[in-house]
Each structure stands twice: as C-alpha cells, then as structure tokens.
Amino acid sequence: MNRQRKTASAVAAVSVLSLSLAGCASGAGPAAEGGESTINYVIWDANALEPYKDVIAAFNEEHPEITVNIQALPWDQYWTKLQTQASSKTLPDVFWINEPNAGLYATNGALAAIDTAQGFDPANFPAASIQSYTFDDELYAAPTGYSTMGVWYNTDLFDRAGVDYPADGWTQEDFVAAATAISDALGSEGVFGAAAAPWTGQETSYNTIYQSGGEVISADGTTSGYDDPGTIAGVKLWVDLAQAGVSPSVAQITDTPIPQYFTSGKLAMMWSGPWNANSLKDSEIAETVAVAPLPTGESDLVTTIQGGADAVSAYSENKEAAQTFQAFLGSKKAQEMYGAAGLGIPAYNGVASSFTDAFPQWDLSLFSDQAEHAAPYPVSLNTAAWNTLENEYLTKAWSGELTVEEACKQLAAAMNEVLAAEQK
Question: What are phi and psi of 250, to 5 degrees?
C-alpha cells in the first residue's frame, strides 16, 4: 500500500492552509433515529479499498449501528481536495493523515483530539509514533503503520550483468558500483541501475543524507540542514547517478514513475518501502524480485522512519461514531488485519509479524529491524512550504543548472526563511 510514500510531493501540493473560514459541517449528516449513524472514511490508495472493506465488516460486527462509507481518492488529488475541505469545514469524518501534514491540520483546529474513552490506548504504540501526532499535549491521530526503506532488486538483471547481489553490511560505495555496472552492461537495452528524483526524498535522498551524517532539518525543526556537508554529499550521490545516466532523468521519471520502471524490468534497484510487497508479488517480475537492507554510510543512521495515521474531523456531525471507528482502526484486531493484508508494518506493538508472515518469499523483517537505526522523518509545522522549495532547488541540481552545493545552500537559505516564519 501507499500510505506513507511520496510524502514530499504530496505536501508540496498542500501549501499553506487557511482554516479560518466558517462553513457547513462534515458531509456525513446527523445521526439517524435509534442511534444509527453514517460516517465517511477517505483514503488515498485504491489498492487498500478491498482490505479495508474487510476491516469495516469486522468493525460492524461490534458496531452494526454505524455505517462506514469508504472512498479512495487518487494520490494526486488527495491533498488538494483535503485542503479545500478543511477550509470549508467539510472534511470527511475519518481520513488518512501523515506526519508532514498533521501539525498543520491539528494546530489549525481541523482535527479532533482522540477520545481514549472510546478504547484507543496510546500505550499500545511506539512512543515516537504517538509523539508524531501529539500537539500541545493532545493526541490527534491513531497511528496505523510505519515504514523504513529497503532496496527492492531484480535478480535477473543482476545475473545478466554479472553483478553480485546486495549483501548485509553493504555500503553506499557498493551500491553505486553495482548500479553503475548494471547500467553499463544493460543500458543499451534501456535498463537503469537505480532511480531517484528531487521529489523522492523519503525513499532515496533523505536516507543517504542521514547515512552521510547530514540532516534535512534540525531536531527542533527551526533550521535547514541542507548546507551541511553530509547533506550535500547525500544529495550528490543521486545527482551524480542521474547525470551519469545510471538513473533515469527527471523528465523520464515524470513520464514513467519509478515503480513502473521496476516492474517493467527496466530498473535493477528500487529504493522504497514495504508497501511494495503487495503489488510486487503479483507483478510480471515477481519470480526475480528480492529485497535487501539499505546500504550504510558514515553515520549509524541508515534510513528514515515514517508512519501514517487515522484522523477524525473536528467538524464531524457524527464525531462519537467517527471516534469509535478510529479507536477500532487502532485496535490489535484491525492492526493485525492491516498487516495480514500486506498493507504495511502495523504500528501496534508486537504484531509486525502479521505483515512479514504474509510474504514468506521475502524476509521483510529487515524493515522493522532497521527501525533501530532510523532517523525521524523530517517535518516542521508547515512542512509543505519547504517541500516545495526542495523540489524547486533540487531540480536545478538534477538538471545541472546549479551544482549540488549551490542548489543545497540556496535551498537552505530559502528554507530557513520559511522556518523562521513558522516561529512567529
């Protein structure tokens, strides 16, 4: 599933919310007679619709009086529509949220704080996941799953190029060498060794930034890390691959997304999260797909970690029903269903095996194992604003309009202005 990925490009579409408009309440409508009610649940992944219908059916075994209508919006429409609904106070009763957007919506009064009386227990989740959705000492969303990154690779392309498979403990240098060798050997067939673009930070450059000892943003969220030498090195790794033709160009990735390159047999290595397991097991290259941990760099950090969550609209006319459903989504039962359906690693403590056991062909425990060496996903109160700047300035590095150092330092200066405005 695609709950946590592409975050930078998603929030870039959100811009700055204006939630001050008065408007009508959520479109679910008031509760019907006899205590019955209908709520709307909106997600951003059509592949999750059927598994979530099963979750809703399990919920209705306990709460037949609550009807849940689920809808999946296309990823490129989700955040724009959510922004419009937040401004007019017509948000869905329950909807998916992620870390870069949660603070903006919560602090502008669009999210309802979790009502633990409905059965949700924060103690059942990692403290970091709970903290990600806590603002002014109030918890505003129920964590669902989390992702670290790994390297999905095509063994057939490695074999044809005569390159050894990735091994535990491999390094950035090993990765670059393998990607380059495969591109050199098979490039005439349209095969690339690796792939990244300015907007794929979560899956690619954010990880090499932290591996190289840099940071995207300071721990307190007040200053950019893009002028740090480690950060510049982490970005440069990918820009060098693109400019050498080892990775598709920005234009090519705009036309053909990275997962499509991979499943069509034209990409040897795809840095991405565990959500790919469901689609890859049924792909044309399923028999030649394997997965490895991310390579290591100078730092003890290897990957970023991020998780999605379920939020309730502060404007819902059926808030109690919505929070009852939210609490169920955060229950052990629902979380095990989430994992067993292959949607991702459940955030609920102790049930990660429900996901990893669903794919015996791969050792997906590496994703949860890497959490020990993961950096928190970089966010601030208004992440969307500087994600837009990332795309603007890093694209200039990818294209060669600016050197990587120039692009990163200019990005840092522009980003610091945005972050300073957040503090006012």
Answer: -60, -45
pLDDT digits (tens, 9 = 90+) for 183-192: 999 999 999 9
Count of Cβ atoms closer than 10 Å to residue 65 Cβ? 14
Residues 6+ apart with CB under 8 A from 38: 28, 29, 32, 66, 67, 68, 69, 318
Question: 370, 148 in Cβ contact below 8 A?
Answer: yes
Instruction: Measure the CA–CA gap between 305 and 263, rounded to whole angstroms.
Output: 25
CB contact burial 153-165 (16+ within 10 A = b; e otherwise): bbeebbeebebee
Which residues lie closer than 8 Å to 369 by C-beta, 6 or more apart? 293
CA-CA distance, 178 to 173, in Å (whole number)?
9
244-294 residue pLDDT tens: 999 999 999 999 999 999 999 999 999 999 999 989 999 999 999 999 999
Distance separating alpha carbons of residues 299 and 373, to the nearest angstrom: 10
Q: What angle do CA 145, 261, 305 make, to 5 degrees?
A: 25
Contacts of 385 (CB under 8 A, 6+ apart): 15, 16, 418
Structure tokens at 120: 């949700």
Distance of CA 167 to CAs 157, 291, 295, 373, Å?
Answer: 16, 10, 9, 17
The runs of H, that is alpha helices, within 162-284 are 172-186, 205-211, 229-243, 250-255, 258-263, 277-280
At 395, phi and psi to the nearest 5? -60, -35
The answer to whether the predicted template modeling score (pTM) of the entire model surpasses 0.90 is no
Per-residue pLDDT tens over the stretch 134-144 = 988 999 999 99
- Between CA 193 and CA 175 the distance in angstroms is 9
- Residue that is written with structure tokens 């919560």 in the block: 106
HSE, side-chain direction, 13 A CA sphere, residue 389? 21
Given a contact cutoff of 8 angstroms between Cβ atoms, the answer to whether 293 and 168 are in contact is yes
CA distances, 18 to each of 100, 103, 110, 388, 420 (Å)? 16, 14, 10, 17, 19
Instruction: Count Cα neighbours of 276 within 13 Å in the Cβ-side half-sphere.
Output: 29
Closest-CA residue to 373 (of 168, 223, 156, 232): 168
Token pair 């996941």 is found at 129
Q: What are phi and psi of 115, to 5 degrees?
A: -100, 100
Please compute the mean of the pLDDT values over residues 299-324 and round it to a whole number.
95
Residue 224 three-state SS? strand
CA 28 – CA 204 distance, rounded (Å): 39
Pick left, alpha or beta for residue 308 (phi over 0 → left; psi -120 to 50 → alpha; otherwise beta). beta
**Cβ(140)–Cβ(337) below 8 Å:** no
